[in-house]
Write a structure and sequence with these properties.
This protein has eight helices and ten strands. By secondary structure, the protein is of the alpha/beta class. The chain has a single domain, classed as Rossmann fold (3-Layer(aba) Sandwich). The strands form three sheets. Strands 7-6-5-8-9-10 form a six-stranded mixed β-sheet, sandwiched between helices. Strands 1-4 form a two-stranded antiparallel ribbon. Strands 2-3 form a two-stranded antiparallel sheet. The radius of gyration is 18 Å and the shape is globular.
Length: 217
């Protein structure tokens, strides 16, 4: 089997093909936080491609069963994890809920939408993990509701050390279908980027906040 035929590299290639991920180290993007980045990721675009979303759904299911076993409930993190989580729950024949970024300001002021009972086991679905802040906020809400969070599965992670530390502190296991390292390897192999760009991309992952300064000559 070709080294790039495994699921992690296949998904990385899908993300590059449909431009769910864009790599432009010489023309960095500005995130909502103000952070300058050579990568922009919008995994919601995968939903527009039936074959790709089906492949991702199946990889989610396999990862969940392998690492966590079948839970009582699947939970999606708003907004990127909602549609993905619903697809996974449907495939597994499980109930689905989703977790808002914050409680509603009206009505029942719910943060968790859907039927959920205390002591149920839950696996959380995300589309993307950066530092893990918003993802782990959802985990905390589910735990506060009395649920047992078995872990989280996401399509992609930037592999920031901060994220690894945050998940470890929260005692929440994170599994991802692909990651930044797989993406860079695939991008070079499939000629989405030049080899000369690799070092800059690696440096960004190690020091995102200081990376933009290194571009100034």
């Amino acid at each position: 089997m070709n080294a790039f035929d495994d699921p992690a590299h296949k998904i990385a290639e899908f993300l590059l093909q449909i431009k769910a991920v864009k790599l432009e180290p010489e023309h960095p993007f500005t995130w909502a936080s103000g952070l300058k980045s050579p990568i922009y990721c919008d995994n919601r675009k995968t939903l527009s491609y039936p074959k790709i979303r089906t492949y991702i759904r199946q990889q989610f299911v396999e990862s969940i069963l392998e690492h966590f076993g079948k839970p009582d409930v699947i939970a999606g993190v708003a907004t990127g994890g909602i549609a993905l989580g619903a697809l996974v729950a449907q495939e597994m024949g499980l109930p689905f809920v989703y977790v808002r970024s914050e409680a509603k300001k009206h009505g029942l002021t719910n943060m968790i939408e859907g039927e959920l009972e205390s002591r149920q086991s839950v696996v959380v679905i995300e589309d993307l993990v950066s530092t893990g802040g918003s993802s782990l906020k959802a985990v905390a809400a589910l735990r506060e509701a009395g649920c047992v969070v078995k872990g989280m599965v996401a399509i992609f992670t930037y592999e920031f050390e901060e994220a690894a530390a945050n998940f470890k502190k929260a005692k929440c296991e994170l599994r991802t279908l692909t990651n930044y390292s797989n993406l860079i390897e695939t991008a070079v192999e499939k000629e989405y980027i030049a080899k000369k760009d690799v070092e800059s991309l690696k440096q960004w992952k190690l020091n995102p906040s200081g990376w933009a300064q290194s571009l100034v000559k």
